[in-house]
Amino acid sequence: MRRAALLLLLLGGCSSASDKELAALKSAHSIVAEWAAVARLESEGRVGATYARVMEDGARSQLDSARRELRNPNDPAARLIDALTQSAPDASRLEAAARGLGALEQAREAR
Questions:
Q1: Cβ proximity of 101 and 31 under 8 Å
Q2: How far apart, in Å, are the Cα atoms of 95 and each of 27, 32, 71, 109?
Q3: Is the confidence at residue 10, as pLDDT, over 90?
Q4: Distance separating alpha carbons of residues 35 and 39, to the nearest angstrom
Q5: Which of 55, 73, 95, 102 could be disulfide-bonded to 36 (CB atoms 3.0-4.6 Å)?
Q6: Surface-to-core class of residue 88, CB atoms within 10 Å of its CB (0-12 exposed, 13-18 middle, 19+ buried)
Q7: Stated pTM of the model
Q8: CA 37, CA 42: separation in Å to the nearest integer?
Q9: What Cα–Cα distance (Å) separates residue 56 from each residue in 5, 40, 60, 107?
């Protein structure tokens, strides 16, 4: 009986960590998609540079928070987020990253 309870407790802990990572991945996907949209609008002259910089700063901060939930540094989502936050990506790169995060999100949901 104790072993069964311990097994359930351990499995529950794994699920919780997995749920947190999936939530972080979903958040990162949304953040990057929004950042990409603003970057695209800025490149078209449809939003101002000040708005775009404020949005970028907010996106970077939120991505840092989501990234902390991805414990494994070799996780493809973690590496993608790291690459975005350590550079100045343009709209095309952000759009590609959003697609990549979306694909990773779908793959994790299917598990």
A1: no
A2: 15, 8, 24, 21
A3: no
A4: 6
A5: 95
A6: exposed
A7: 0.83
A8: 9
A9: 46, 12, 6, 27
